[in-house]
Amino acid sequence: MKYWSPLLACALLPACQQEKPSSEVKQPDRDRSVQGVVPSVEETATEDTTHLPYPDDTGHGADGQAALTTEWPKPDSFTPEQLEKLTEALRLANRLIKDPLFAGVLRDLQDRGQIDWRAPGTKRRYSRLPQDQWARPTAYIMEQFIQKQLNPITDFRPYRWAPGSDVTGSSTCVADPKINVNLIMNRSLGNIAGTIIHERVHTFCQRHTCNCPEENQCDLAYQAGSLARAINLYRANGSRPVSLRRHKLCAALKARLEARRLAS
Ligand SMILES: [Zn+2]
After folding, report:
1. Where are the domains of the chain?
2. What distance in angstroms lies between residue 50's CA and the mean position of ligand 1's atoms?
3. What pLDDT score was predicted for residue 231?
């Protein structure tokens, strides 16, 4: 509980205990066909990636296959300036996950069944979570946030992706997770903080269905990262509503942000 206030823990835990399936998004505990299935070889792959979420952030190149070749990404090293910026972004990310709005909005979405855990075939988003948590994946990951918080700065490793790639980072779902950071860090601190939080969800073992941000916009990793960015903008605006018109984010999250008057 070093970074998490008791208030936040109280805000999160009841929601964790009350997670219920909703008719809006098919929840894992309704998907009886997947229970007890042994993960396929494909599911043992551990890497997930984060792509630039905002169309106006920088140019989007053809990432996809380039980022998945054996040549890329390449390990590199941080310059002192890059490490300083990443450290500052991590500090911001720690503030954002402690903001009561972070737990509050995620709880809203969870209660409405608007965090998407659906996935076709063997690509279930929750398949790398402990199997006894498959029926309550959001609650499990929110508990992980409370217990383990964000990665320390020493877990972040510098990588360079192929020129033109829009990948911002990747992470692994293992006991001692590291986060690979794209060295092209000319993004805002808020966006980098959002990526840090997105990647943290992957280290807690949520996976995407494909290397396609558009189809994963409403999963927990994307919504948590997008929410953190929105809270940052809102707080920087004196806790007055901000415009998110240029931002790509899940429609359900946008509706929640508008309902709570974080966005207009
Ligand atoms: Zn991701």
Report:
1. 6-19+46-259
2. 4
3. 97
Residues whose CB is less than 8 angstroms from the CB of residue 69 and which lie 6 or more positions away in sequence, other chains included:
162
d(CA 250, CA 244): 11
Distance in Å, CA 199 to ligand 1 centroid: 6
Distance 204 CA to ligand 1 centre (A): 12
All residues at 6 or more sequence positions from 145 whose CB lies less than 8 Å from its CB, including other chains: 4, 12, 97, 200, 204
Residues of the chain with pLDDT under 70: 1-70, 120-122
Beta strands in 22-126 (DSSP E): 47-51, 74-75
Give pTM, 2 decimals: 0.76
For residue 32, give the amino acid letter: R
Instruction: Tell me how far the alpha carbon of residue 227 lies from the centroid of ligand 1, in angstroms.
Output: 14
Tell how far the Cα of 225 is from the centroid of ligand 1, in angstroms.
9
Secondary structure letter of residue 105 according to DSSP: H
The H-or-E segment that residue 169 falls in is: strand 167-172
Query: Residues 131-182: pLDDT tens digits?
Result: 999 999 999 999 999 999 999 999 999 998 888 888 888 888 887 888 898 8
Burial, 227: exposed, middle or buried (Cβ in 10 Å; 0-12, 13-18, 19+)? buried
Please tell me the distance between residue 51's alpha carbon and the centre of ligand 1 in angstroms.
7
> By the 8 A CB rule, do 111 and 136 touch?
no
Distance 30 CA to ligand 1 centre (A): 24
Tokens of 30: 């309704």
